[in-house]
Amino acid sequence: MSQTLAIIKPDAVGSGKAGKILAHLEDVGFTVKALRLTTLSREQAGAFYAVHEGRPFYDELVHFMMSGPVIPMVLEADDAVARLRETIGATDPAEAAEGTVRKLYAESKGRNAIHASDSDENAAQEIAFFFSRHERLGL
């Protein structure tokens, strides 16, 4: 078993889709190990997405991620990072496979409902960004 981070983004929380997304993730075999509802400050959103700083979409992404509540969560499953990436689908919902989270619940490429870690290394860093060791291990 391994862990990864998912964040239900402000568009999905604000439109009442968070419960459906969470149920979808559990239905395909993920176990929620930690979860919280929070609103990111500019500093937090900027720090979380620092890897994208300097890219054309960075400022828009930071603004979007602080525009309303988000739900970061630690998910556990076999090969969690790859499985979650497959489960959520392509960034652009128009290109996402049928039955994926983004095909079902995303509004657009920029308002795409959910974030998922893209590697085991980034998952560990992203989980630590939002959750203490005790929270993510259920201690």
Write the layout of secondary structure elements.
Layout: E1 2-8, H1 10-14, H2 18-27, E2 31-35, H3 42-48, H4 58-65, E3 71-77, H5 80-88, H6 101-105, E4 114-116, H7 120-130, H8 133-137
Antiparallel strand pairs: 1-3, 1-4, 2-3
- What is the CATH third-level topology name? Alpha-Beta Plaits
Count of domain modules: 1
* Structural class by helix and strand composition: alpha+beta
C-alpha-based Rg, rounded: 14 Å
List keywords for this structure.
Alpha-Beta Plaits, 4-stranded antiparallel sheet, single chain, alpha+beta, 139 residues
Characterization of the model:
It contains 8 helices and 4 strands. It is an alpha+beta fold. The longest helix has 11 residues. The model has no long low-confidence stretch (mean pLDDT 95). The protein has a 4-stranded antiparallel β-sheet with strand order 2-3-1-4. The chain has a single domain, classed as 2-Layer Sandwich (Alpha-Beta Plaits), CATH 3.30.70. The protein is globular.
Give a nutshell description of this structure.
With 139 residues, this protein is an alpha+beta fold. 43% of the residues lie in helices and 16% in strands. The protein has a single domain (2-38, 69-137), classed as Nucleoside diphosphate kinase-like domain (Alpha-Beta Plaits), CATH 3.30.70.
